[in-house]
């Protein structure tokens, strides 16, 4: 028996009349495909390359700066020496504060949107509003925070004002993640629960939320990491150049990692001398943010596997 | 008992509705404050002078509040970054959803997500201390901090947005269309180009618009990398001062409710209107797409 | 007609937005009787079934006209407490859908949400329901393991036990065996035979033979209307309507 | 107790050193220091968001007016002296520029270094952003109120300007004396080199005083700090930071 | 046995990862003959069908052992060009899946990707295929409207026309009428009758009566194996195997 090769599948042999271009066509089509697939793969590679490049430079230039002292001491000598402890604390404070604001509001909003609201014009407007909120530039959040929290509410430049501003900015992230998590809870769970005489709230509390919890947590982690990495919203609302002690109340100003990088790199007293500190701070920030993201990504992919 | 239960249910419902309105309330508040703090500048200058004026000297006496150079700068960096990020983002999306094996996709996707997670200040820092000098050397240009550098950095920030939304769109193209095309003797490339991408086009457009919206609003990158010259650029290697950069660098010096302060909020309004327009367009496209999706049932 | 009507639909019309899914349905269900609803895909069987415990209330665009009586009370009357109603009318779905909880908690769920706190009562009721669902022997040693680890057939019987635990009066089943293999299907059918001693059962099925095997009465739906309803034997041996006959003999659907 | 200091990047090195020294003698006080430019410092005084506002220029009339409207009376303390020096890239052969040449470069009239005796190379004008007191002094003393070309790169601080000049071969910039280091090359103005000596003697044409502002007459910790600034130890710190002390 | 074998599976085994979905399938398809594949859900009918045009190649974890011959050539031989092979073996799916393009472009698609540029040839071929699919009269005035605006039955016939346009030799159909209403189903069945004059047709169906109506040969699959294959008349009137009989009479599945 002979193989079904190129020839035996050719047009003459297959009984198809002469409307198709003969054999020549396919080789070209294949070559075209190989070429383009090369481009597509290349595009994907560039992403990895970009990430790798940034991480490589930050790591190779920053790791020498990292030491126990760097992580646990305040800056000294006009910020040309010492550590970044207050920045780490400030950033953690801001991010946790932001999530403390955004998580309850975001989750409750998502529950309303997904479990209670009936579709309609009003819903459409609310949704549109939330998607627009997600699109508001971070610097505009900063303006808002400055005008509303710092000045109108009299909080001044403070941890509280910064956390609230970041919280407002994180809100759409939380709402989005929670909605996705709620949507992935099969409707049959809801119907089964309601069919047993549970109320809507009982259904949400006992069946829907427990199933959605991991997804919501993932969203929360991503929200924290986003808040931790933002600079523009805290520039006018929370962060200062230098304050060596740990904030004693939420009305205190704080130092923060992203802002610290920015000022050291653009407005420090001796930019060139403090380069290692800048790289070191950037590395700490990256480790913090990407670490959280990695946790969230791994957690989520585990979840997805379990769901299957 | 039933009455009590009903009342609790109602109360919970209203509570959640209340909280959901808070989320929208924030948007309303943002708009309110932007306009409230921004509009008074138009007592000093006309809208036309503001938007079309060529000179931005906010602290001179007499001062000039013309933001055309800032608007043009924002648009240019956005467009240039889009020219880099659209092909890169869409092609990566195609690769992830159509070409890569599951294993490879499982590695590449987190990479894209991590790229999205990199804080903007880190990207700005990278552009400032490494890319700038590199561009200076390779292109022999006088200034490393310029429109091109900023666009490049912005592109890396919007690629993940574009890629992940576009990938969703491609992924949601039903397998049945893929199979139908292959079963007719189309190659994979032909299937992608002629069937999958057209079918996912509205999702891809949404992705592109949202990516550009992210780029135009991004602050730290343009603040650190664009060079900060408030002029109309003559080449892609000229320094520029996009709107967010101006707001971020000048807000701290503008005394509360002085002219400069109002002018910066007014820039915020312009920026907000831009991103809002982008979002509305994206929403429109997504909406239309959903409707045609239903119609196909 | 020795048995009295447990439930009755009277002049029931149902709409999804502008699309009318049910037209003037008049259909009664007797006490301790099994009624099968058959008909081609999309004819409205599930929609009708879900009208009987007002599960369709959840669909925002839907609208009902007409009455459904449970023991002579209209369940669509404004004063009716839907939550209470649903407890009286158990429901089993096409695909087994146990909650991601333990076997025990799955069965106890309906009791808990209905305010039962006493541990002994709950434990007793769980055992009773699992026995009724012919599952007790298989799971009594792993009550506190996750229900998701069970086989499909076991899961479906668990869902039945879960529905029984709140002691409903009527049991609605929407293609309860269509996702199961022949053996599990057989078990479910036997179970229905058992349960019919205590409950009124209404079952939707695509499988004509199943309808013939388990039901006392069969109603044939077509395009949102009831075409024919009669004793199951009569329907399958001597249908009056031509469409019914064509459907039963597999001419279409 | 907390004390916040905000403003001029010219004063920043001094303020930072003073803050650290002050916290040594008064461990009960937490001092926070922010930069950003003189405008930021004065604005913070006007808005009441800081205790001490640094400035490398005097307060403007409009700012005083605004402050008074808000019931604040800014009180200036002249804590030191400084001169502004033009700087170029270390590889740039140009050694001296006249005030007129400097002005023409900053208004965009001179675009190439060969016009002032340098190499054939485009002049990259680097300036400070509008919040800078140095920028304002430069405008008064060099520019004769003419505007800096819009194409000038703007940087937010003295340090940033050093950084920009270091990496840009064709750059011309201006910084406070305290920021001069080996990465940039000082250029003499009309033949006079910027230095402490030439500034005190008044021969150097571009010099200005440095201020700290308080909200009303200082009290409590703020007063203690201001007193510390004018103490011998305090003035030593000012000198150590590269600025010129008042005594 | 007057007609010769068009396709033959020989000792075909198929695996999804570790799960074996097909066991030693030996089955031949005659020229200009309709073969029906029947069997309960999950028995491997679709899997087998998709082995015949190597559509399963797309599933990364899948593995094939054995041979499938098309005109005595093994389609799994390494030298075979899958793209070309698929053009020769048309496929129609369970749900109508027209491309979101115009009616004309849907039918022309296969020609275009296969390198036909000549407008007249394309137009002629489109008309011919639509006529063969008994759709021409209904759509000839709206060829340039979107295919998504058609009814389900029309869409399915469009998909058939689309498959015919590239002039395949074999037509695979996986439950082509299961998403359609009785009338549309009837049209499709009539169409199969017509097409069988030119093509070898292999059709998967859940509907026993449909198998009986349209096919010449019927193969009964169960758990990945062929239990029985014979003339359709024989299978339905006088099956040799007990499982076949039980399935046909609806005892299970
Ligand atoms: N949520 C819904 N919104 C709009 N239309 C719906 C909805 N659910 C069902 N329908 C429509 O109502 C009609 C009846 O659907 P139903 O699910 O009751 O049919 P069925 O007889 O149960 O079919 P099957 O045997 O396939 O389950 C169908 O035409 C269906 O498209
Ligand atoms: N992509 C896949 N990956 C893993 N297993 C699969 C896959 N597709 C099908 N299977 C399994 O292979 C077996 C045969 O599936 P197949 O779809 O061929 O059945 P079928 O006879 O067509 O059923 P139906 O009548 O429901 O369409 C089933 O057990 C199914 O779960
Ligand atoms: Mg149904
Ligand atoms: Mg199948
Ligand atoms: O001293 P300045 O930073 O305001 O120039």
Structure write-up:
The complex is a heteropentamer, with one copy of chain A (308 residues), one copy of chain B (297 residues), two copies of chain C (253 residues) and one copy of chain D (247 residues). Chain A is an all-alpha fold and 308 residues long. Chain A has twelve helices and two strands, in the order αααββααααααααα. Chain A has a single domain, classed as MetI-like (MetI-like fold, Orthogonal Bundle), CATH 1.10.3720.10. Chain A starts with 10 loop residues before the first helix and ends with a helix. Chain B has twelve helices and two strands. A two-stranded antiparallel sheet of chain B has the order 1-2. In chain B, α3 (68-99) packs across α9 (201-217) and α7 (175-183) runs antiparallel to α8 (188-199). The longest helix of chain B has 37 residues, at 2-38. Mean pLDDT of chain B is 87; it is low at 291-297. Chain C is an alpha/beta fold and 253 residues long. In chain C, the strands form two sheets. A six-stranded mixed β-sheet of chain C has the order 6-7-8-3-9-10, sandwiched between helices. The model of chain C has no long low-confidence stretch (mean pLDDT 88). In chain D, the strands form two sheets. In chain D, strands 1, 2, 3, 4, 6, 7, 8, 9, 11 and 12 form a ten-stranded mixed β-sheet that branches. The model of chain D has no long low-confidence stretch (mean pLDDT 89). Chains in contact: A-B, A-C, A-D, A-E, B-C, B-D, B-E, C-E. Chain A binds chain D through residues 76-79, 156-157, 240-245, 252-253, 263, 266-272, and chain D through 2, 4, 6, 9, 12-13, 16-17, 19-20, 23, 30-36, 49, 155-160, 162-163, 166, 179, 181, 183, 241. Chain B: This is Phosphate transport system permease protein.
Indicate the topology.
The complex is a heteropentamer, with 1 copy of chain A (308 residues), 1 copy of chain B (297 residues), 2 copies of chain C (253 residues) and 1 copy of chain D (247 residues).
Chain A: H1 11-14, H2 24-62, H3 68-72, E1 75-76, E2 81-82, H4 85-116, H5 121-135, H6 138-152, H7 159-183, H8 187-195, H9 200-229, H10 232-235, H11 257-266, H12 275-307
Antiparallel strand pairs in A: 1-2
Chain B: H1 2-38, H2 47-52, E1 56-57, E2 64-65, H3 68-99, H4 102-117, H5 120-139, H6 147-171, H7 175-183, H8 188-199, H9 201-217, H10 220-225, H11 243-250, H12 259-295
Antiparallel strand pairs in B: 1-2
Chain D: E1 2-7, H1 12-25, E2 30-36, H2 38-47, E3 52-55, H3 61-69, E4 74-88, E5 96-97, H4 99-107, E6 124-128, H5 133-141, E7 153-155, H6 158-167, E8 171-176, E9 185-186, E10 188-189, H7 196-201, E11 207-215, H8 220-230, H9 232-240, E12 244-245
Parallel strand pairs in D: 1-2, 1-3, 5-10, 6-7, 6-8
Antiparallel strand pairs in D: 3-11, 4-8, 4-9, 4-11, 4-12
One adenosine-5'-triphosphate is lined by residues 16, 19, 21, 39, 41-47, 59, 206 of chain E.
């Amino acid at each position: 028996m002979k193989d079904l090769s190129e020839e035996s599948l050719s047009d003459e042999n297959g009984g198809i009349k002469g409307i198709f271009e003969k054999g020549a066509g396919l080789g070209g089509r294949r070559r075209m495909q190989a070429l383009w697939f090369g481009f597509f793969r290349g595009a994907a590679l560039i992403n990895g390359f970009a990430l790798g490049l940034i991480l490589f430079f930050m790591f190779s230039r920053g790791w020498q700066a990292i030491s126990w002292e760097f992580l646990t001491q305040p800056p000294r000598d006009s910020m040309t020496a010492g550590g970044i402890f207050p920045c780490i604390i400030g950033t953690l404070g801001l991010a946790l504060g932001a999530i403390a604001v955004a998580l309850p509001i975001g989750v409750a909003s998502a529950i309303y949107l997904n479990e209670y609201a009936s579709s309609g014009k009003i819903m459409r407007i609310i949704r549109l509003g939330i998607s627009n909120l997600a699109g508001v530039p971070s610097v505009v959040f900063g303006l808002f925070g400055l005008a509303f929290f710092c000045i109108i509410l009299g909080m001044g430049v403070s941890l509280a004002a910064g956390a609230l501003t970041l919280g407002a900015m994180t809100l759409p992230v939380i709402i989005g993640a929670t909605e996705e998590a709620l949507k992935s809870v099969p409707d049959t769970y809801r119907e089964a629960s309601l069919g047993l005489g549970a109320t809507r709230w009982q259904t949400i509390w006992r069946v829907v939320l427990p199933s959605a919890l991991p997804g919501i947590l993932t969203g929360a982690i991503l929200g924290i990491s986003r808040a931790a990495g933002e600079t523009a919203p805290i520039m006018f609302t929370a962060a200062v150049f230098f304050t060596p002690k740990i904030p004693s109340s939420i009305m205190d100003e704080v130092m923060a990692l992203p802002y610290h990088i920015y000022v050291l790199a653009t407005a420090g007293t001796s930019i060139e001398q403090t380069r290692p500190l800048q790289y070191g701070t950037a590395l700490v920030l990256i480790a913090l943010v990407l670490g959280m993201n990695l946790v969230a990504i791994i957690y989520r992919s585990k979840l997805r596997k379990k769901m299957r | 008992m039933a009455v009590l239960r009903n009342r609790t249910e109602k109360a919970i419902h209203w509570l959640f509705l209340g909280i959901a309105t808070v989320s929208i309330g924030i948007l309303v508040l943002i708009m309110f404050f932007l306009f409230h703090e921004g509009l008074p500048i138009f007592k000093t200058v006309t809208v036309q002078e503001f938007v079309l004026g060529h000179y931005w000297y906010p602290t001179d006496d007499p001062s000039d509040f013309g933001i055309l150079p800032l608007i043009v700068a924002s648009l240019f960096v956005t467009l240039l970054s889009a020219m880099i990020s659209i092909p890169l983002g869409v092609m990566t999306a195609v690769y992830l959803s159509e070409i890569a094996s599951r294993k490879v996709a499982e590695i590449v996707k987190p990479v894209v997500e991590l790229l999205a997670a990199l804080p903007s200040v880190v990207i700005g820092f990278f552009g400032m201390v490494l890319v700038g000098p590199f561009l200076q050397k390779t292109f022999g240009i006088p200034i490393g901090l310029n429109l091109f550098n900023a666009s490049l950095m912005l592109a890396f920030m919007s690629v993940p947005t574009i890629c992940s939304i576009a990938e969703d769109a491609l992924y949601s193209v039903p397998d049945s269309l893929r199979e139908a095309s292959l079963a007719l003797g189309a190659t994979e490339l032909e299937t992608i180009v002629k069937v999958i991408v057209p079918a996912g086009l509205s999702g891809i457009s949404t992705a592109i618009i949202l990516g550009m919206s992210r780029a135009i609003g991004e602050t730290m990158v343009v603040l650190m990398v664009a060079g900060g010259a408030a002029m109309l650029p003559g080449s892609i290697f000229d320094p520029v001062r996009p709107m967010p950069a101006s707001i971020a660098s000048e807000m701290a010096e503008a005394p509360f409710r002085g002219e400069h302060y109002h002018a910066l909020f007014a820039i915020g309004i312009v920026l907000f209107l831009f991103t809002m327009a982008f979002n509305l367009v994206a929403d429109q496209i997504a909406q239309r797409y959903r409707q045609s999706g239903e119609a196909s049932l | 007609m020795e048995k009295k009507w447990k439930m009755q639909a009277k002049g029931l019309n149902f709409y999804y937005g502008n699309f009318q899914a049910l037209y003037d349905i008049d259909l009664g269900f007797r006490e301790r009787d099994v009624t099968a609803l058959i008909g081609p895909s999309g004819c409205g069987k599930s929609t009708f079934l879900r009208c009987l415990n007002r599960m369709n209330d959840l669909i925002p665009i839907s609208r009902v006209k007409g009455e459904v009586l449970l023991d002579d009370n209209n369940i669509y009357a404004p004063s009716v407490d839907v939550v209470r109603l649903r407890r009286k009318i158990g429901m089993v779905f096409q695909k087994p859908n146990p909650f991601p909880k333990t076997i025990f908690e799955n069965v106890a769920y309906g009791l808990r949400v209905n305010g039962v706190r006493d541990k002994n009562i709950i434990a007793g009721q769980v055992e009773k329901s699992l026995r009724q669902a012919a599952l007790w022997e298989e799971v009594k040693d792993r009550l506190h393991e996750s229900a998701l680890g069970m086989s499909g057939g076991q899961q479906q019987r668990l869902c039945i036990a879960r529905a029984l635990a709140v002691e409903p009066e009527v049991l609605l089943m929407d293609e309860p065996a269509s996702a199961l293999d022949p053996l599990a299907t057989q078990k479910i059918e036997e179970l229905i035979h058992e349960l019919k001693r205590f409950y009124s059962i209404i079952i939707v099925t695509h499988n004509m033979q199943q309808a013939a095997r388990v039901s006392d009465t069969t109603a044939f739906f077509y395009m949102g209307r009831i075409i024919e309803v009669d004793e199951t034997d009569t329907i399958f041996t001597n249908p009056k309507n031509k469409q019914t006959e064509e459907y039963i003999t597999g001419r279409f659907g | 107790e907390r004390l916040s200091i905000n403003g001029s990047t010219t004063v920043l090195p001094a303020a930072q050193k003073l803050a650290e020294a002050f916290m040594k003698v008064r461990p009960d006080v937490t001092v926070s220091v922010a930069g950003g430019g003189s405008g930021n410092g004065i604005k913070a005084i006007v808005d009441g968001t800081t205790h001490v506002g640094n400035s490398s220029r005097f307060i403007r009339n409009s700012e005083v007016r605004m402050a008074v409207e808000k019931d604040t009376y800014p009180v200036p303390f002249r804590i030191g002296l400084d001169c502004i020096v033009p700087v170029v890239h270390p590889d740039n052969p140009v050694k001296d520029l006249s005030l007129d040449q400097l002005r023409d470069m900053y208004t965009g009239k001179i675009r190439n270094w060969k016009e002032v005796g340098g190499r054939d190379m485009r002049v990259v004008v680097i300036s400070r952003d509008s919040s800078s007191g140095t920028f304002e002094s430069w405008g008064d003393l060099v520019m004769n109120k003419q505007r800096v070309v819009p194409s000038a790169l703007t940087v937010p601080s003295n340090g940033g300007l050093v950084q920009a000049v270091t990496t840009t071969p064709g750059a011309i910039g201006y910084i406070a004396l305290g920021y001069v280091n080996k990465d940039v090359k000082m250029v003499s103005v009309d033949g006079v080199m910027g230095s402490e000596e030439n500034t005190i003697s008044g021969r150097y044409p571009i010099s200005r005083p440095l201020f700290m502002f308080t909200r009303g007459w200082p009290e409590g910790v703020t007063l203690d700090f201001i007193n510390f600034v004018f103490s011998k130890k305090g003035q030593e710190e000012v000198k150590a930071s590269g600025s010129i002390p008042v005594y």
